[in-house]
Design goal:
There is one protein chain. The chain is α/β, with parallel strands linked by helices. It folds into 2 domains: 131 residues, Rossmann fold (3-Layer(aba) Sandwich); 62 residues, Arc Repressor Mutant, subunit A (Orthogonal Bundle). The protein contains 8 helices and 5 strands, in the order βαβαβαββααααα. The longest helix is centred in the middle third of the chain and has 42 residues.
Length: 222
Amino acid sequence: MTPTAKTVLYVRVSTSEQTSDHQLAQAREAGFLIADDHVITDHGVSGVSVRLADRDQGRRLFDLLQPNDTLLVRWVDRLGRNYEDVKEVIETFNKKGVTVRTVINQMTFEADHKLTDPTMKAARAAILAFMSALAEADATAKRESRQAGIDHAKASADADRKYRGKKPSYDRSIFDAVQTMLAQNARTVSQIARETGLSRQAVLRIRDTPEAADVALHRWGM
């Protein structure tokens, strides 16, 4: 008996406290039919530095998805680190018979066996090249923007030590410990706060704006 084709939503979230719920709801609102057990989520994984095949949940996709299945992602940047990486991942799934679709703009990269017209294959390749390049450019812009903010803040702190802002309620060792706990994804924010003696707000600041927290420690020489 031929197995029923399925749609699998792959989600990559950047912090341990985020969930796949929002992206799943967004996909369903867009008209995609996804079973609850067909949502694969990677937590706290950098899309800039870690290949899909090297992520704990990402590599499951290569075994889980079969010909005629559909891989759904919010956008193509969920699938790789840069242009070549995204392009290679989508082409690999297409050759396997898996169609890749995006929630944003509902882009479709059909499986190879569904494209018998060479013109359609050429069109898919052109769109894939453009979308992959766009994903890399967006990731690069964000990375450069973050680094520029850090460099500016550090330069400002070095140039004017008279205004350093509020002194952090933690030192460098506690900052590092909190980041380690968050990366392990084994404790809630409240649990981390109790174990480190920090407030929930302090833990949230370290989680959500680690660059700013690092700069604050730098200003105070901590």
